[in-house]
Design goal:
Radius of gyration: 24 Å
CATH superfamily of the largest domain: Spore Coat Polysaccharide Biosynthesis Protein SpsA, Chain A
Number of strands: 30
CATH class of the largest domain: Alpha Beta
Helix content: 10-25%
Largest sheet: 6 strands, antiparallel
Shape: globular
Distance between the termini: 47 Å
Strand order of the largest sheet: 20-21-22-29-24-27
Number of domains: 3
Structural class: alpha/beta
Strand content: 25-35%
Mean pLDDT: 93
């Protein structure tokens, strides 16, 4: 492999297709769906670690999920070259422009590999071999994409047509003739008969200068606005905040449409490494390990006379009897039951939940924060009970509430509690009361996680009743 290879990891996504496990507050790239107990994002990064001379990745993320992305990188001992925070989603065209501009400021002219953070690739060895075959094309000034060899007439993917049919016994790139949007079923059946068609994986490889030159030629407005938004960005802890004034003026457009459909430098290389975009619960079942009855069983589950189903419990006992081709997902606040073949329609349900302002459509009861997480155990209009976990050396902001008081009961670990400048050290089975209007802060000074129960009571217990005075994570009001 050539030197100076920088992976570009796209970490956006709203999280509707794998509801109720994936939601806007915790989209699918952060989920643990594979047997190795790592998230899709973590697997994406580790999958390319064996590339020779590969540098740590550039992550492109949004404001809401920045600490999730950073924490998951810390868990696998990866320090990203950069984490770029988009102030608003503008699709893959502007995102790739930002990444290329950032990369060229780090290295003279690195090769970039653009990867989605929420895809699954089972055969890592084959995948790396295919990437290796793309390097020479990239060094010769081509813009490479990797087309997945179709296994069925899929209507959920876009297709790429090469100028020549592929010889499946060799990894040979071909010129791209055209991109085709998601077809109907009859068209898809015709496509898979033609060996020049592949599924569009959204994986790209090119040198940074190559893609910037092409964007300057084909979509100069995007490049100009991204240059200005990067120039006017600011650093915030481990993140680089992209300027909203310029970036929000970028067109909302994909890299396929802005560049790949117009360039004469496009090359497609066939990919046959058991790729999946994990776009539905059916696709999760297809790539998961199964028992002799074709079932995937995860969590607290019992089944009888059940076949070809995906049963997953996060909390409670889930029992299935006489099921066939069923998806059943249990979480603490929602349960999904669907025919496997209709699991794509989950996104329609999520849309209805949002339209009706039903919280479960967007938020989990477990909410992640830079210091750890909290989980809502019980609630009413004037009170709420939470389980709070604070990571070692984690520190909540110095804050105050206008409408609620709080009571903290330490379950595990050691807590340093500051209330109106008075400091107490609490251990297991001790508790403390925080009066309404008091400035207070919670810190875990220990080496093990701090677990506590928080009981809130007052006229209003919403999360927006927080006035922050100091915060090590930069979340001031």
């Amino acid at each position: 492999m050539a030197e100076n290879i920088i992976p570009i990891i796209m970490c956006g996504g709203s999280g509707s297709r794998l509801w109720p496990l994936s939601r806007q507050s915790f989209p699918k790239q952060f989920l643990e769906l594979s047997e190795n107990k790592k998230s899709l994002l973590q697997n994406t990064v580790e999958r390319i670690n064996d590339l020779k001379d590969v540098l740590n990745p550039i992550l492109i993320c949004n404001e809401e999920h920045r600490f999730l992305a950073a924490e998951q990188m810390r868990e696998i001992r990866i320090k990203p070259t950069s984490i770029l925070l988009e102030p608003i989603g503008r699709n893959t065209g502007p995102a790739i422009a930002l990444a290329a501009l950032k990369a060229i400021s780090i290295n003279k002219n690195p090769i970039l590999i653009v990867l989605s953070s929420d895809h699954e690739i089972k055969d890592k060895k084959k995948f790396l071999k295919v990437l290796d075959s793309g390097v020479n094309f990239a060094l010769n000034g081509e813009i490479v994409t990797f087309g997945v060899l179709p296994t069925k007439p899929e209507t959920g993917y876009g297709y790429i047509k090469a100028m020549k049919p592929f010889n499946l016994n060799e990894l040979k790139g071909e010129r791209i003739e055209k991109f085709v949007e998601k077809p109907d079923i009859n068209t898809a059946k015709e496509f898979i008969k033609d060996k020049s068609f592949t599924w569009n994986s959204g994986i790209f490889m090119f040198q940074a200068k190559t893609v910037l030159d092409e964007m300057n030629r084909l979509c100069p407005e995007i490049l100009d606005l991204c240059e200005k938004s990067l120039k006017n960005s600011r650093n915030d802890l481990d993140f680089q905040r992209i300027d909203n004034n310029y970036f929000s003026r970028c067109p909302d457009i994909s890299f396929d449409i802005s560049v790949m459909e117009k360039t004469n430098k496009g090359i497609v290389i066939p990919l046959n490494a058991y790729w999946s975009d994990v776009g539905s619960w059916q696709s999760v079942w297809e790539t998961a390990n199964k028992n002799n009855q074709g079932n995937t069983i995860i969590g607290n589950v019992m089944e009888l006379d059940t076949t070809n189903s995906y049963l997953r419990s996060e909390k409670r006992l889930l029992v299935g009897i006489g099921l066939k081709d069923i998806i059943a997902i249990e979480t603490s606040d929602a349960i999904l039951i669907s025919e496997k073949s209709k699991s794509q329609k989950v996104k329609n349900i999520v849309k209805k939940l949002k339209e009706n302002n039903i919280l479960e459509g967007q938020m989990h009861r477990k909410i992640y924060r830079p210091w750890g997480y909290y989980e809502i155990l019980a609630e009413d209009s004037r009170w709420q009970v939470k389980l709070i976990r604070v990571n070692p050396e984690g520190k909540l902001s110095l804050q105050m509430h206008h409408h609620r008081s709080e009571h903290w009961i330490i379950v595990k670990g050691t807590a340093k509690v500051e209330i109106d400048k008075k400091i107490d050290i609490l251990s297991e089975n001790q508790s403390i009361y925080i009066p309404l209007g008091s400035k207070h802060r919670l810190t875990n000074p220990g080496r093990i996680p701090l677990i506590l129960i928080e009981v809130q009571s007052g006229s209003y217990v919403g999360e927006d009743d927080i006035v922050r005075y100091e915060d090590k994570y930069g979340r001031l009001n």
